[in-house]
Design the sequence.
């Protein structure tokens, strides 16, 4: 059992489903989403993919016996290297655990996991007006100077 208050970051486990889904729903209910999570079938498939030994990765932050944060990522190839890169897809910390270093620990733990998977870079996107996230991200990475373009198909 964890010491009271100790923060542990570890891979997502099947037994985490209920607590993970609460954080997943919280992630989708805030920020650029501001609404409902994906359909149940997508949530189910996503969770299963995180548990499989594939390119989708999930780490959780555990404190006082419960999940307080999640980070999700995807390893993928690129044309400029023979090593994969790691896209940090989702980062979310429960309201009760914010501004206590949980987000930083999750990002740093993802760096360790990506390194262990032979990735040569971790990258992510951020909403341009998310000043709170920018403070964390500027302290753990550098801005690429790129703008993201996309088109829904």
Sequence:
């Amino acid at each position: 059992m964890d010491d009271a208050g100790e923060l542990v970051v570890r891979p997502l486990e099947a037994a985490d489903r209920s607590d993970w889904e609460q954080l997943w729903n919280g992630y989708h209910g805030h920020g650029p989403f501001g609404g409902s999570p994906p359909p149940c079938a997508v949530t189910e498939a996503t969770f299963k993919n995180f548990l499989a030994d594939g390119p989708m990765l999930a780490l959780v932050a555990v404190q006082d016996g419960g999940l307080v944060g999640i980070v999700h990522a995807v390893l993928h190839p690129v044309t400029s290297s023979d090593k994969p890169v790691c896209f940090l897809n989702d980062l979310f910390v429960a309201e009760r655990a914010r501004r206590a270093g949980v987000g930083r620990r999750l990002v740093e733990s993802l760096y360790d996991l990506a390194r262990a998977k032979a990735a040569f870079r971790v990258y992510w996107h951020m909403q341009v007006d998310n000043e709170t996230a920018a403070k964390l991200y500027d302290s753990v990475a550098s801005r690429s100077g790129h703008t993201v373009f996309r088109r829904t198909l």
Observations:
- The beta strands are 7-11, 56-63, 66-76, 85-93, 122-124.
- The helical segments are 17-28, 40-51, 102-116, 131-140.
- Residues 102-116 form the longest helix (15 residues).
- The chain has four helices and five strands.
